[in-house]
Amino acid sequence: MATERFEEIVEDFEFIDEWEDRYRYVIDLGKKMPPMDEAHKIPETKVHGCASQVWIMPDLDGDVIRFTGDSDAMIVRGLIAVLHALFDGLPAKDALNVDAIKELGRLGLDQHLSAQRSNGLRAMIERLGEIAKKQVG
């Protein structure tokens, strides 16, 4: 189960042959995200387990997953944008049922990220799961 925005990313990836171009696409997604307020880049929003600096800030909106995120690494900021497309706007109970690793595997990211980036991506997914669990109660 994925959002329409994530499905658009999957379709776009199908038309991009070279991985260097796919990385540029992911980076561009990150560049299009609004910047995270510096006041929200605090220890409570920092995602541990990432080689880069990463912050994910929940915006509790009833039972719907909403969040902002940022990173000091362009590719990681792009990965946050991909996760945003996958999760943002879903009811929290539905977000808990998303197999993010499987969905991201549709993009081939599992095979093309470094071990450090993969670990960081898993840490971000775990943080989003924690946010969803808090909203479900």
Written overview of the protein:
There is one protein chain. A two-stranded antiparallel sheet has the order 1-2. The chain is built from seven helices and two strands. Helix content is 55%, strand content 7%. A hairpin with an 8-residue loop joins β1 and β2 (67-71). It has helices at residues 4-15, 19-32, 74-87, 92-95, 100-105, 109-112, 115-136; strands at residues 54-58, 67-71. The protein is mainly α.
List the helices and strands and how they pair.
Blueprint: H1 4-15, H2 19-32, E1 54-58, E2 67-71, H3 74-87, H4 92-95, H5 100-105, H6 109-112, H7 115-136
Antiparallel strand pairs: 1-2
Helix pairs in contact: 1-3, 2-3, 3-7
Can you give the helix content as a percent range? Answer: 55-70%
What does the radius of gyration come to?
14 Å
CATH class: Alpha Beta
Average pLDDT: 92
Characteristics:
137 residues, Sufe protein. Chain: A, two-stranded antiparallel sheet
Précis, in short:
This protein has 137 residues and is mainly alpha-helical. The protein has helices spanning 4-15, 19-32, 74-87, 92-95, 100-105, 109-112, 115-136, and strands at 54-58, 67-71.
